[in-house]
Amino acid sequence: MEEELDELGSENTSSLYNRKKKLVYIMPATVLIILTAVLVLYYNHSVQVNHSVLKEKEEAEKMALEGHYNEAEKRLAEAAEQRPDYQGLERSLSTVHDVQKMQEDLDSVESSIEENELDKALEQLAKVNKEMIDNENQLVVTLTPKLNQLDSRITVGKINNEVKELTKVDELADKLNTLSGLDLEEAARAREKITEKIVSISTKKAEDKINEKQYNEAIAAVDEGLQYVINHEKLLQLKERVEQEKQAFEQEKRERMEQAMEQQALEEMKNRREAVNVLDIEAYKDEFGDVTIDGEVQSEATSIISSIEVTYDILDKDDEVLETDTAQVYPMYLNPEDKGKFEQIYYDYEKEEDISVEVTNVQWFVE
């Protein structure tokens, strides 16, 4: 039994020794495997984190370039929490912060424009523009459209204020040319406003000339407006009306001239043939037997006549002509409807009992 126990003891000791020997090799290998697994897991996690951070950075930068600065800042901040020491994220964040500040400044410019403080807005915009030029920031280009838009709005606002004081078509046309290159809703409204004022001024000027019968000047006023407001329906209709009134006026003028010429011809004929009306002529003797021929005439001419001479016959009781003589009317010049007189005394008809007189002719000069 003792021999058997010795053999069994010897076998157990040998088995334990072998197991210990195996553990010496198994334990380091297991630790190595575990450490390797941990390192691999950590490495894979780090790679995933880095990949996620880079992706977030790229998407944030894309958003920033699209003008979504707040969302870009949020994404970059989240990425920075995962990689606090990543300087690329810090630079991107700083860039976004700079642009956000500039955007706030541009918002202030816009507020000044809306309050019609255009000089203040222009000063603020110049300051922001200088900051954008001095800042080496690739995101600055995303603010350029808004800066240009605000600059255009200031220009439009100033023009709107100036238009209220302008009263000449050419001055308004200069403002219209300035607005022609601006693609803004405000610019479109300003152009429409200026167009309406050009039409209004041209119409008023033309109407005044029509009332003065100065039709060529009226057409010129309409054409001046059409030069800048091409094919405007109201101005085209006004021009057509002016031309029609001009033709009617010229026709009426021709008719008046023809009537005047006819009237003048009639007046000339009357002045030469019927300018003097003998109102009265008589012959009478005085107590000494002297015969006096006394008469009165009136001018029926339309102009001044002069040197009126009345020719008459002195008749006896049998209507026989005793003498033909002439008398000068005084005053020498008679205006239309004026009266004149003439008188002659004869001393040779003492024996004649009844003396009468009869006008045979009247002569005069038309002045």
Structure report:
It is a single chain. The chain is an alpha+beta fold. 64% of the residues lie in helices and 16% in strands. The chain is built from nine helices and seven strands. The strands form two sheets. Strands 3, 4, 5 and 7 form a four-stranded antiparallel sheet that branches. A three-stranded antiparallel sheet has the order 1-2-6, with no helix packed on it. Strand 3 and strand 4 (321-328) form a beta hairpin. Helix 5 (144-163) runs parallel beside helix 7 (185-211) and helix 7 (185-211) packs parallel to helix 9 (233-273). The longest helix is centred in the N-terminal third of the chain and has 64 residues, at 2-65. It is rod-shaped, with a radius of gyration of 60 Å. The model has no long low-confidence stretch (mean pLDDT 79).
Which key terms come to mind for this protein?
367 residues, alpha+beta, 3-stranded antiparallel sheet, 9 helices
CA-atom Rg in angstroms: 60 Å
Mean of residue pLDDT values: 79
The helix fraction, in percent, is 55-70%
- Biggest pleated sheet: 4 strands, antiparallel
Find the structural class using helix and strand composition. Answer: alpha+beta
N-to-C CA distance: 191 Å
Beta-strand fraction estimate: 15-25%
Query: Ranges with pLDDT <50 over ≥5 residues?
Result: none
Shape descriptor reads rod-shaped
Count of individual helical segments? 9
Order of helix and strand elements from N to C terminus? HHHHHHHHHEEEEEEE
Number of strands: 7
